[in-house]
Here is the input.
Amino acid sequence: MRRVDYAARFWDAHAWSRTHEIEPAVADGFRVCLVLVDVQNTFCTPGFELFVAGRSGTGALDDNLRLCEFVYRNLPSVTQVVATLDTHLAFQIFQPTFLVDEEGRHPEPYTPVSVEDVDAGRWRIDPAAADALGLDHDYAAAYLRHYVETLAVGGKYALAIWPFHAMLGGVGHALVSSVEEAVFFHAIARGAQVDFQQKGSNPLTEHYSMLGPEVDEDMEGAPVGRRNAPLVERLLQFDAVVIAGQAKSHCVAWTIDDLLHDPTVQERGLTEKVYLLEDCSSPVVVPGIVDYTDDADAAFARFAAAGAHIVRSTDPIGSWPGTIAQVGAE
Here is the structure.
């Protein structure tokens, strides 16, 4: 983790674009959007709260090396970078602060919370958390039951208590330095502002996908969170949407699934626009506790079967299915 020398990179990018005659992004005939999901210190820097090690133990480190090389190597082809930022606060439904057992003890990180746990009273809303959020205690208790049941019925991951991570205002929330530097260089070289999209600060729902929350209504049908419909529409304006980031088993997988199942994407038959950089994402693995590698691989197999393209960062964009003879041809 280091400070990026923006002034130096500004002049470097200007010089590079002139020397190599790189055109501004606005002139692209075939438009490529690179979506970076949660490439933040909290997930990508060893020693931080949720470093995504994968089974290799160095997953996110290796992913980001390849990702940076991909950005620099494909400066003339990548039109726009969209970077999501997982963004959390002290009192949220997946934080240890939110729940207590019958003796008032908070759950440990990685504790799963099921419908059976809530019904048996093993976990319940901490009154202090309800007060901090201005929630009626009875409403909060009913909502917790509704929340875990909705996840179960929808076939989603059970509510998990996570270590505090990606805390707004903290260093863990920032992009990992090497990627931050690469996308800044791209922005200057191509004249294309990075589009930062924050997600995950709603206290009453998890938010793995950058496009929408895990639960969007309470037990009375009132909205809890909103789907990012404008972002979906914007992504569909590109000829190719390339997705990478962390973690492959959670926020990346949920984002891709959300995008491929979006009604607009399905109605227009646009799944072939989606490309997944399989060597720039790793699954959540905590030895002896959880290993989501198989879940992540199964999800990517489903995405490929649905029509998305699984590609590698080292393959030229122009060789990818659907982009042949189009990238750089204009």
In short: The domain at 6-22+29-88+167-319 is CATH 3.40.50.850 (Rossmann fold). The chain has two domains: 6-22+29-88+167-319, 99-160.
